[in-house]
Amino acid sequence: MKSLLKIVFAFFLAISIVVLFTLQLMQGSQINTIKTELGNLSTTVAGLTGQDPNITLIPTNGPLEPTTNPDGSMKVKLFYKNYGADPEVINCAADTFVLRTIPKTTMPLTDTLQLLLSTTLTDAEKNFGLDSPFEDSVYSNRFENFKLKTVTVNNGIANLTFEDPDYFSSGGSCRIGIMTSMFELTAKQFGSVDKVTFSPFDVFQP
Could you give the CA distance from residue 21 to residue 177 in angstroms, rounded to a whole number? Predict the structure, then answer.
């Protein structure tokens, strides 16, 4: 009887060992699968944000200071609304920036804001969900005469003066909120700017 019990015990012990070994193999396989999927995800993200030097998509709470290159050129941030992250447009503000480079200049703020007006988003940036009101075909005729005339900074306040004879900057409150946010956040990346105002009084009005 004791011998039979020993045999049964040994049998169940062997089965338990086999089951545990099988579970370990399965767990290891699942871990490897997860690692592979994470690696693929990292590659995909790198493709969006690293391989294209023009696109870096970071929330507005990211670092804001522009970067000066050895040749005197400057890598700056241009802010846009990310409709991919907010398709219902609950937040009427620019919430993502892309990187661009401006040549060496004595007027980096002015040149950066002019670049914001003239930049065309890349296909990668558009596919990510970014959109520019300055590329909107509905307003293209009005945009032709929309100009940033002067930029002045006094005591941390940057005043942007525009020429807008065709009322490009008029429209719905959300559209205006996005545009003003684009200018404000793009300007505030410079340490000399704490606040942004707009002139004349009727620019960027609903």
Answer: 61
Q: Delimit the domains of the chain by residue range.
A: 1-51, 58-199
Segment 39-92, tens digit of pLDDT? 443 333 434 434 455 566 776 666 678 989 999 999 999 999 999 999 999 999
**pLDDT tens-digit profile of 156-192?**
999 999 999 999 999 899 999 999 999 999 999 999 9
Residues 6+ apart with CB under 8 A from 65: 189, 191
pTM > 0.85: no
* Length of the chain, in residues: 206
Sign of CA dihedral 157, 90, 46, 34: positive
R_g of the chain, CA atoms, integer Å: 28
Positive or negative, the Cα torsion across 196, 198, 201, 205? Answer: negative
Strands 96-102 vs 58-59: parallel, antiparallel or unpaired: antiparallel
